[in-house]
Amino acid sequence: MKISYNWLKQFIQTDKTPQELSLILTDIGLEVESVDKVQPIVGGLEGLLIGKVMTCVQHPNADRLRVTTVDVGGPELLQIVCGAPNVGEGQKVVVATVGTTVYPNEGEAFKINKSKIRGEVSEGMLCAEDEIGLGGSHAGIMVLDENTPIGIAAKDHFQMEDDFVFEIGLTPNRADAASHLGVARDLAAYFRSSVTMPEVEAFSVSNESLSIPVSVEDQTACPRYSSVTISGVTVKPSPDWLQDRLKVIGIRPINNIVDITNYVLHDLGQPLHAFDADQIQGSVIVRKCAEGTSFVTLDGVERKLSAEDLMICDEAGPMTIAGVYGGKNSGVTEQTTNIFLESAYFNAVSVRKTAKRHGLKTDSSFRYERGTDPEITVYALKRAALLIQELGGGTISSQVGDLYPNPVKPFDVEVSYENIQSLIGVQIPETQIREIIEALGMRVAAETAAGLHLQVPAYKVDVTRECDVTEEVLRIYGYNNIPIPTKVNASLSYGVKPNREQTQHVIADMLTANGFLEIWCNSLTKAAYSKNEEEAVKILNPLSSDLNVMRQSLLMPALESVAYNQNRKNADLKFYEFGKTYHLINEKYVERPRLLILVSGNLQTEQWNQKPRTVSFYHVKSTADAVMGRLGLTNFQIEEVADENFAYGLKYFRGDKTIVTFGAATAKDRKTADVDKDVFYADFDWALLMDMVRKNKIINKDIPKYPAVRRDLSMYVDLAVTFEDLKGIAYKTEKKLIKNIQVFDVYMGDKIPQGKKSYALSFTLQDDNQTLTDKQIDAVMQKIISNLAQTAKAEIRK
After folding, report:
1. What pLDDT does 225 receive?
2. Would you say the C-alpha torsion 630, 636, 639, 642 has a positive or negative sign?
3. How many angstroms separate the CA atoms of 245 and 9, rounded?
4. CB 289 within 8 Å of CB 318
5. Which residues pair with 321 in a beta bridge?
6. pLDDT of residue 466
7. pLDDT value for 598
8. Omega before 498 cis (within 30°)?
9. How far apart are CA 699 and CA 687, in angstroms?
């Protein structure tokens, strides 16, 4: 949400700078994500001065040029060569001095330098409208009123005031702060000051020549509906001040009527809609339409209405979707002269469901979904009507219609001083608690020695309980004012081993130490990522089509992170994530803890003394092995993976339970996530790992007293034979003495028999009780050779 600094100061007087105010807003719960300086026009007229042409003579070497001397309030006159046909002695003009950057309407910005033009020195430029962004005319230089003082900055003369825009990360519970007024209320509470509301006392009804009857059939979905008509209006472009206000917060100006409704929306937080009154047939009816009713919205899309959609209708049919979107023929056009102005309070749940149903997100629905102020509808209506009269003419042609049969009551909340202080953890004086509560707009209906009976205004939709009031007190009191205790009291307790959090931290620390970065991806994702639709956990009321199911794997959201980084020239990635996947199995919801490890790009950044190495399958394998080793898990089986989630890979398993699967992501998955580089990842069943770790026993052994011996074997084997096959045969042959087996060379080429490959293996043998003799070693190796030949048909190379 964007909030203008200058706009905000219309509600509250403050001498705080934008940067100081941003810190205050963040401290009181309205997190400011950025503060950006905004200028009404590009460049903000920086460096431009008001000057007076003292002399103007013909250029000696050019018929169309004049040589002028200009007084800009400095110690000396400036000589400036000018080609404008209207330049003359005595004029007050806008001067761009040497060093100033000029931003024209068209073309690139350019810097003014001291130069010679046809032999005459020129120390600046006399400016036309289009050369500095103040208009579109290029017929000549700007000639100002003769009473304009010289030497002042052009931005001061034209009243160009820089603005600053706060980008506030508004949380869903803070509906009351979804406007400049709402933010000002919070600041007023912080400063213990008051909010200055715009005056509406000038509102008066001129006649009742355009009274349009209104009826509300569904008072649950529309508790309050206020309206008024204005006749004789002229639809035209808005004045600069209004256009600038909207542009600063990212709203495109359309015309004075629409701009006023948008202005009041962001000013007060109350959505409005202006109808062309001449297009309304008969009366206005707030009701629901039959299921499947066809309706064309402002964007030209034909939609089928639900029987649950609240509509603003006339006697001919629906005109707008209440609180969400206007109809194609309901809006104001250049031909509009009479206006029916709506200001309503709609049920938040009704608007939210309708907006989600039709996939529509508007500034109005954003506020209605979270809850607006039911007490401000008439005030906002009068505010907008006065602005329409001021900027578009016309007269108020009806009494204010206000259908409000069941007024929304304030929330009654009982609070205890003791409970507030206990929850906050600090003894805040009771007088200060009450002061903050009243500054926040909550009325004290009754008071006792123990606490207060409060009436919380309806616009504070999230303050309905004592703990909510406590939170309000705390954020204004200041989270930073809560001292951190100097000691922490704790007691020893028995916990089930292993400690899941501690084990997770151990693995996270190991991965981080090896250059991996932890990511946290959203558990909500696209339905297109669900490869097993029967197990998909679907969201009944999704925020968007991109967040409509719970993830079935950690891979696809992680690939989105890969794409995001690669698109920003950060292609060398090593990620890990602890998270859960979600499944619907036999009508039961199942959550599965997982660990994802992912690598892509180069193994390390480019160095002058070595070439970059691209990550491969073996890098993710070594990381998976490191995790298994760190957890002390060595007894498992290995098998090539046949899975739609991997282009190729391996899996480690025990019995029918897969511990981890790792390999290369498929081209299809990478294309879906828009990733154009190879990605290798490992997917661990973290819950199974924890069960396996729990059964591990730690055994301490002495350091071996006797030396280990290494023997190497080189052999031909069939292409289908794997290293794991050979290792398994060797361990079955001799379990006691063989301590380790490694492969140190694999070769496939034209120098070995067809259909074969060459393996070179190293065997480490050791006896814990004695030094091995050559005779013992040779006997073991002969057994291994014999069994490899019989079982794997290995041919030992001499």
Report:
1. 97
2. negative
3. 13
4. yes
5. 311, 325
6. 94
7. 97
8. yes
9. 24
Task: Please give the structure tokens belonging to residue 746.
Answer: 């694999």
Strands 78-82 and 110-111: unpaired
SS3 content of the chain, % helix, strand, coil (to 5): 30, 30, 45
| Angstrom distance (rounded) from CA 560 to CA 675 | 8
pLDDT of residue 496: 73
CA 750 to chain centre: 57
Within a 10 A sphere around the Cβ of 67, how many other Cβ atoms? 21
> 324 Cβ partners below 8 Å, 6+ apart?
351, 354, 355, 358, 360, 362, 364, 365, 368
101 DSSP 8-state letter: E
Letter string b/e over residues 108-142, b meaning 16 or more CB atoms within 10 A of that residue's CB:
eeeebeeeebeebebbbbbbbbbbbbbeeeeeebb
pTM: 0.67
Q: DSSP secondary-structure letter at 277?
A: G
DSSP code, position 787:
H
- Whether the Cβ atoms of residue 210 and residue 336 lie closer than 8 Å to each other: no
Strand 517-518 to strand 573-585: parallel, antiparallel, or no bridges (unpaired)?
parallel
Q: Is 166 helix (H, G, I), strand (E, B) or coil?
A: strand
**Sign of the Cα pseudo-torsion (672, 673, 678, 684, in order):** negative
- The Cα 697–Cα 525 span in angstroms is 40
**Per-residue buried b or exposed e for 217-253, using 16+ beta carbons within 10 Å of the residue's own CB:** eeeebbbbbbbbbbbbbebeebeeebbbbbebbebeb
Spans of the chain below 50 pLDDT: none
d(CA 437, CA 470): 9
The DSSP string of 368-413 is HHH---TTSHHHHHHHHHHHHHHHH--EE-SPPEEE-SSPPPPEEE
CA distances from 272 to 267, 367, 694, 749, 759 (A): 12, 11, 62, 77, 78
Question: What is the phi/psi pair of residue 667, to 5°?
Answer: -60, -35
Largest interatomic CA distance in the chain: 119
Strand partners, 679: 600
Distance CA 81, CA 84 (A): 10
- 13/192 Cα distance (integer angstroms): 12
Contact (Cβ atoms closer than 8 angstroms) between residue 457 and residue 417: no
Residues 6+ apart with CB under 8 A from 718: 755, 756, 757, 792, 793
| Backbone φ and ψ of 718, nearest 5° | -65, 155
